Amino acid sequence: MKDLSRNLTMLCDFYELTMSNGYFTCGMKDKIVYFDVFYRNNPDNGGYAIAAGLEQVIEYVKALHFDEEDIAYLRNKGCFSEEFLAFLRDFHFTGDIWAIPEGTVVFPGEPLMIVRGKAIEAQFIETYVLMMINHQSLIATKAARLTRAAKGRAISEFGSRRAQGADAAILGARAAYIGGVNATACTISDVAFGVPATGTMAHSWVQMFDSEYEAFKTYCEIYPNNATLLVDTYNVLESGIPNAIRAFNEVLAPKGIKTCGVRIDSGDVTYLTKKVRKLLDDAGWTDCRIVISNSLDEYLIRELIRQGAEVDAFGVGERLITAKSDPVFGGVYKLCAVEREDGSILPKIKISENVGKITTPHFKKIYRLRGRDTGKAEADLLCVWDETVDDTKPLEIFDPQHTWKRKTLENFTAEELLKPIFKSGELVYELPTLAEIRQHCKEEIEGMWDEVRRFSNPHNYYVDLSQKLWDIKHDMLKAKGVYQK
Question: Which site in 34, 174, 294, 384 is 20 to 30 Å from 366, CA atoms measured?
Answer without folding.
Answer: 174
